[in-house]
Design goal:
Blueprint: E1 20-21, E2 30-34, E3 58-59, E4 62-63, E5 68-70, E6 79-84, E7 89-97, E8 108-113, H1 137-150, E9 154-159, E10 164-166, E11 168-175, E12 198-202, E13 236-238, E14 244-246, E15 250-260, E16 264-268, E17 280-286, E18 293-294, E19 303-307, E20 317-325, E21 338-339, H2 344-349
């Protein structure tokens, strides 16, 4: 249970916010049910962008708000909704954002979770476009019976008995896969977010976080890593402790979902053409046992699959490093080598 917000801000963000938002619509999150959507629909909770405020924008139901806002209750109970996570996994932290709800925010919340087998989710009444409405008595009764019989995905409940607003719900964690039932001879995407892959370090995320490259299939809209242009040579070196040193290029390090042998690598540059397309890329592994290997020159706007590049890269690995380099007309600047590291607190949260 979380009480009403206090004045001031956290000195630093918790480490778990670097993990994936498993409830986001960008990875398949979905609102299954909500008791009330009068002022603003619950679907706003799982938008991937940050909440915004438009002072002079109104709807037929009142001021437009970028969040989920219910009407004032005149009956016992509280408002709640059910969110189906887009990625099944382990929850490491929650962020309930009440931005711009100054007087009508939900002063308290309660969150419950359940793990349902794939394909056995409870059937819910169709939502459609909902605003200015509340769930009917028949819908509430049907959902109550299904919750008792089959459980819920993730429920957000706002109390006490008043109207209230929440801008966003972020459910941070890591994906999970039942490896005991997996066929070790079948190819599997070891970097996939849904299986537990995660970006644990990067040089730049000016236009998009590297985690966007490993979202579940079918939710690729806007799922790109787009760092700023960086014209410089590619290369790998390690220091006397084996730590990876960066010579140039923009880079991202991915913790693989399971130790494995890499047989193929896919680099997809779809929608990136001209000066926005990376010209070259290189792959390294952690711990660093070689100087890495550059893949053949990349083609723009193409999904490219490369077979395992060197015998060294075919060893069992736990993490991969991708470095990209783009050519531009700007004068390149000398840049000292950087050392990649992961803070202990963040590593333990994975």
């Amino acid at each position: 249970m979380v009480d009403s917000p206090r004045e001031g801000k956290l000195a630093r963000s918790p480490d778990f916010v670097q993990l994936i938002d498993m409830a986001s619509e960008s990875v398949g999150g979905k609102i299954l049910f909500a008791t009330d959507d009068f002022f603003a629909p619950a679907e706003n909770l799982i938008k991937s962008d940050s909440p915004r405020f438009e002072e002079h924008k109104y709807t037929e139901f009142g001021r437009w708000m970028d969040g989920w806002e219910t009407r004032r209750r005149r009956t016992p109970g509280h408002d709640w909704c059910i969110v189906r996570l887009g990625v099944q996994g382990l929850i490491r932290g929650l962020d309930v954002d009440i931005s711009y709800f100054t007087g009508g925010y939900a002063p308290r919340i309660s969150i419950q979770a359940a793990n349902l087998e794939e394909g056995k989710e409870p059937a819910m009444p169709p939502r459609g476009v909902r605003m200015g409405v509340a769930a009917t008595a028949e819908e509430l009764d049907a959902v109550a019976k299904r919750r008792q019989r089959e459980g819920v995905a993730v429920g957000l409940r706002a109390v006490p008995l008043t109207d209230g607003g929440v801008a966003r719900l972020r459910v941070y964690g890591v994906g999970h896969k039942d490896w005991a039932s997996a066929d070790p001879k079948e190819p599997v995407d070891l970097a996939a977010m849904a299986s537990g892959g995660a970006c644990v370090g990067f040089s730049n995320a000016h236009f998009g976080h590297p985690n966007k490259m490993i979202v579940p299939a079918g939710f690729g809209a806007g799922s790109v890593w787009h760092p700023r242009a960086h014209a410089c040579p590619l290369g790998f070196q390690s220091d006397e402790t084996g730590a990876l040193l960066v010579l140039g290029g923009e880079w991202a390090v991915f913790r693989l979902s399971h130790p494995g042998v890499v047989t193929q690598v896919e680099i997809d540059t779809t929608h990136f053409e001209g000066p926005y397309a990376p010209a070259r890329a290189a792959l390294g592994r952690l711990p660093l046992g070689s100087q890495g290997h550059a893949v053949p020159q990349l083609s723009p706007n193409t999904a490219q699959v490369f077979d395992s590049l060197t015998p060294e890269l075919q060893d069992v690995v736990h993490a991969r490093r991708l470095t990209i380099c783009s050519f531009c007309l700007l004068r390149p600047r000398d840049k000292p080598m950087m050392r990649f590291s992961v803070k202990a607190g963040f590593r333990s949260s994975l």
